[in-house]
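Hi support team,

I'm filing this because I wasn't sure whether my run with threonylcarbamoyladenylate finished correctly. The job status page said complete, but I'd like someone to confirm that the output block is well-formed before I use it downstream. Pasting the exact inputs I used:
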Amino acid sequence: MKTRVVKAFGDPEQDREIMEEAGEIIRSGGLVAIPTETVYGLAGDAFNPDSSRKIYEAKGRPSDNPLIVHIARLDDINAVAEDIPEAAFKLAERFWPGPLTMILKKKETVPYETTGGLDTVAVRFPVNKIAQEFITASGGFIAAPSANVSGRPSCTKASHCVEDLDGRIEMIIDGGEVGIGLESTIVDLTEETPCILRQGYINEAMLKDTLGTVGREAADSEHPKAPGMKYRHYAPKGKLTIVKGKASDVARRINELVREHEGRSEKTAVISSHEHMSMYKDCRSLVCDIGSLQDEDMIAHRLFALLRELDDKEAEYIYSESFDTPRLGEAIMDRLYRAAGHSIIYAGDH
Ligand code: TXA
Ligand code: MG
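And here is everything the job wrote out:
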């Protein structure tokens, strides 16, 4: 299959022709990769079981891992979910359109192929203009997981989608780099107490501020409610290890480790905050500046692209500092821990 890559601008006039074509692809059961404010998504018709099957195939994703249904009008929540609790409307009012996904009881009309066999459905109303135009042009209901091939870092620009999906889908809409760079926060609203299943840009404090009590699923849960959370994810090809501790201890330990690898001529890389770059000045290996600890949005925005760049550079061993920043630290570290397969070293006394 030939994959067309086309540009869109978030302007309905300019994008009209592209959106008509993309909508036609979706209505006839095909797949299109699209930008959203979080990461690129791989879109198909949410009500067409064949489209959902194709999504799993194109991503190489296990079919028990459900897809998120994307809508572009608040009212449309009623077409995919039922028994919707008041909390959902409160969250929608404050955070939609935006990077928040809600788990609700599904309507019978949503195929099990889309929900991975579950009686619940994940719903999100993205704020990205191109995504909204596209969803509307496609009939209003789009199933879309992140556009990466299963297990790889999520796509934050169109070129990442080309790397992963060229030849497997009909079209990739290039809307430039995404804004946030981490997938949406997922909140389960099917139980008594709302529960965070995946950390994201909308953090726990913001949710508590709106709902009062909010639970969270244990990070090491063996049977996570979001099936996707049990798979190793975001993994670069090299062996990634996170080194934790006081900055000076972390830098000393990483420098030692890197020297050992250099001695064996192994390609090694370091992920450092901007502030700590000078601590690695004696490294002959690649030292990557992920951004300033004062600018956590940038760290979130850069993370997945950086992991992909390290693949391109064929880094065999990667050591990363941890980035426990106040607002997005949990979401960033959730992705980084997964990428590292939870391989962590503690430097110094702790
Ligand atoms: O920001 C995002 O959410 C992006 C963009 C494209 O919207 N999408 C995304 O989709 O990250 P995906 O498929 O990579 O991650 C969706 C997660 C998976 O962990 C999946 O298991 C979980 O949501 N999920 C989907 N439906 C669910 C359900 N009914 N119950 C529990 N978890 C669900
Ligand atoms: Mg994903």
